[in-house]
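1st attempt posting a full record on here, be nice pls
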Amino acid sequence: MNYSVSIHNFGDFADVRRLVELAKEAEDCGWDGFFLWDHIHWNGPPMLDPWVALAAIASATSRIRIGTMVTPLARRRPWKLARETVTLDHLSGGRLILGVGLGLPPEEEFARLGEDADARIRGQKLDEGLDVLTGVWSGEPFSYQGKHYQLDNVKFLPRPVQQPRIPIWVAGLWPNRRPFRRAARLDGAVPVKVGPSADMPGLLTPEELAEPLAYIRKHRESAVPFDVNASAAIPTDPAQARDVVDAFAAAGATWLQEWQPNPDALSARLRAGVPTR
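the predicted structure (as tokens):
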């Protein structure tokens, strides 16, 4: 099992220098991943750009995996994101993971900024954006004619450090099936469930996690290893932590990520160490 933290990019965490300190602390304390949310507007709190922050984090660390959990690809130009991700992959020495999804909440992230908030349109842009990303990452001449994006014989160099591509994990709200069919074609899944509000997804228990993972396996054609990044509140007591970790591992999770509400709480959790080492 790999262990990571997932950090919102607003409020008390909207300080790049503090995030760099926390990422170094996570690496020193044996954690495996340090992931940032990718929001651009959410009810007005201070907010930072996760990509600039990740560049600073990449320069200050050497081992820990980094990335976004998750980037709403429909509000990005995929060719611009391709340049940013490859640059960050090189800067980090091949440690980037790209998490993608539709983005929540659509009213704040899309409608208020003049973008189409319709879930079907965002889904179309997400699928086309993934086609474009993986196409230009190849470093070969690439053309594309989609409903939303068109490219005419472009060639993007350099290629990513990681081959055959930067790992892409797809987030989805179970029991929605489409995100998990999308994930089955790529490198990993970030499964959550419909929560009490549209702004706050719920966490899947190990028993609940088994169902979307069985659905992914049904639709997955590749035998290449596949990551599953589950979210959990893991006890600090070693025996209790082992029970939680074992249950998620048995369900098929390869990563467990935790969230803390503020930098001080996160620092304390990082110093307490990863749950089962």
